[in-house]
Amino acid sequence: MDRSLDEILIEADITSLQFAMESGLLSSEVCVRWYLERIARLDPKLNSVLEVNPDVIEEAISLDAERREQGVRGPLHGIPILLKDNIDTGDHMHTSAGSVALAEHIAQSDSMVAAQLRAAGAVFLGKANMTEWANFMSSTMWSGYSSRGGQTFNPYGPGELFVGGSSSGSAAAVAANLCTAAIGTETSGSIISPASQNSLVGLKPTIGLVSRTGIIPITYSQDSAGPMTRTVRDAALLLGAMTAVDPDDAMMHEKGRKAYTNYTPFLDANGLQGARIGVPRFYYEDLDEARAEVIERAIRVCREQGAIMIDPVSLPCESAKWDWDVMRYEFKKGLNDYLAKAGSGAYVQTLDELIAYNEANADAALKYGQDTLIWSNETSGTLSEPEYAESLQLNRQLSRDQGIDHAIRENELDALIFLGNEEGLDVSARAGYPLITVPGEYVDTGIIGEDGYTTKGPQGITFVGTAYSEPILFRIAYAYEQATKYRFAPNEEL
After folding, report:
1. Which of 75, 306, 339, 494 is the most buried (most CB within 10 A)?
2. What's the Enzyme Commission number for this chain (predicted)?
């Protein structure tokens, strides 16, 4: 491969690619072919890409012609991205959530997210591997594993470092420069965790900011798609292309929704100056020494950049006993609703049928079992159980009124700061509030976990806000990124 192309495309961001295309140094077709070569050469060691879009070169050529003849649609015109394998595309690609039961499933139409990105000119390189059913299949399943795609590996240390989940393939592919950016989805940690572990920027938006129509669900109360990128600016560009109101997503019609089609004006290299950031030390207590030092240095960086660090702050919900009933009940209804409208090639139409299919094809489908699917299937699938309503109400009360909103209100905060995807971030997930992680340091020592992976490797710094505080989070995260610039590409040899 041409070395000059490597110089242009390794670690390239959306803005630099647009400049190269506009100046004639590059075309979308050349860019796509370069990524496809890297996928063929490097991805056998990562298992991050489930399938390549068979029409991608033709689509890139068409967008190049449109650029010449009509001009660009916007900043995403001709930019190659990957989509997580639970996001519908109405083309020749499959949507399976990593399951062999949906390996041949082709959606009838684009998800709302895919339609918006396509309209903005993005080129879909393919579908990224993921933890099967977004890690809601088995209590023992390793992050990054799917029966359809196998185990995804972290490019900074394949087979050694934790890859994070469930948007594992999206993260590994972006980190290894197999695409410009990717779209992941998160219920609780599924964007933030792999982004943190792969030295990326990952944003989970406020629930209600981005449509969920056409995305295989876990829970209506917490699911959202979001960008996974190498820079904060790229995350802002992608998010702005995904905020159109979806008439079929009721959460997008709730009072107080604040959406923008361009989040780049909020990026400010001096954005930490005067920012009030809370330090929730309760959630740092179980960190090992190396990672504890990372968050302490991050706090110092924020302070040095002019932030007012409120240290410590407490959340009344810190010692709450959480349950998982909302996810348990909503998964069955959401999955049954999705499968009832699935396109061709779906071998199952209900959660009942999925469990039976897995049992009948156990060698291929049940490496880690399916106890979580069975647990969810014990519910009615109608959301009529009192336990569900009680759990939903308790989640919102604890995570909002006695959680994030309490801390922000009582201390007049802009955001809270956490390390990576530690336990406290589940509070944000239950609240439906936004959070963004930015590349932090690389830890050389670590503790080996039960899954065999160590806690060493890239560590993200995560900022959490209240509902629709994405502009504030972008301002703070961009300033932190510009002050530190910790990200570096993994070794090409993997």
Report:
1. 75
2. 3.5.1.4
Taking residues 33-46, what's their average pLDDT? 98
Burial bucket for residue 136 (CB in 10 Å: 0-12, 13-18, 19+): buried
The hierarchical CATH code for the domain 3-254 is 3.90.1300.10
Name the residue among 179, 297, 162, 292 with its Cα closest to residue 234. 179
Q: Give the integer Cα–Cα distance in Å for 39 and 47.
A: 10
Instruction: Please pick, among 28, 190, 199, 428, the residue that the annotation labels catalytic.
Output: 190
Name the active-site residue from 48, 84, 204, 332. 84
pLDDT tens-digit profile of 70-112?
Answer: 999 999 999 999 999 999 999 999 999 999 999 999 999 999 9
Selection from 173, 223, 232 nearest residue 203 by Cα = 232
What is the distance between the alpha carbons of residues 345 and 53, in angstroms, rounded to a whole number? 17
- Number of Cβ within a 10 Å radius of residue 407: 23
Angle CA 45–437–334, to nearest 5? 80
| Rounded CA separation 11/286 (Å) | 34
CB 177, CB 38: distance < 8 Å = yes
Question: Residue 1: its pLDDT value, please?
Answer: 43
- pLDDT one-digit tens code per residue, 136-184: 999 999 999 999 999 999 999 999 999 999 999 999 999 999 999 999 9
- The pLDDT score that the predictor gives to residue 424 is 83
> Is residue 156 within 8 Å of residue 111, measured between CB atoms?
no
Nearest 5°: phi and psi at 226?
-165, 165
- 315, amino acid identity: L
Task: Tell me how far apart the alpha carbons of residues 326 and 329 are, in angstroms, rounded to a whole number.
Answer: 5
**Is 190 assigned a catalytic role?**
yes
Give domain 266-322+394-484's CATH number out of 3.20.20, 3.90.320, 3.40.190, 1.20.930: 3.40.190
Looking at the chain, the domain(s) classified CATH 3.90.1300.10 span 3-254
Q: What 3-state DSSP class applies to 492?
A: coil
**Sequence-ordered list of residues with C-beta below 8 angstroms from that of 452, at least 6 positions apart, any chain:** none
Helix (H) or strand (E) holding 116: helix 112-119
pLDDT band at 360 (very low <50, low <70, confident <90, very high): very high
- Regarding pTM above 0.90, the answer is yes
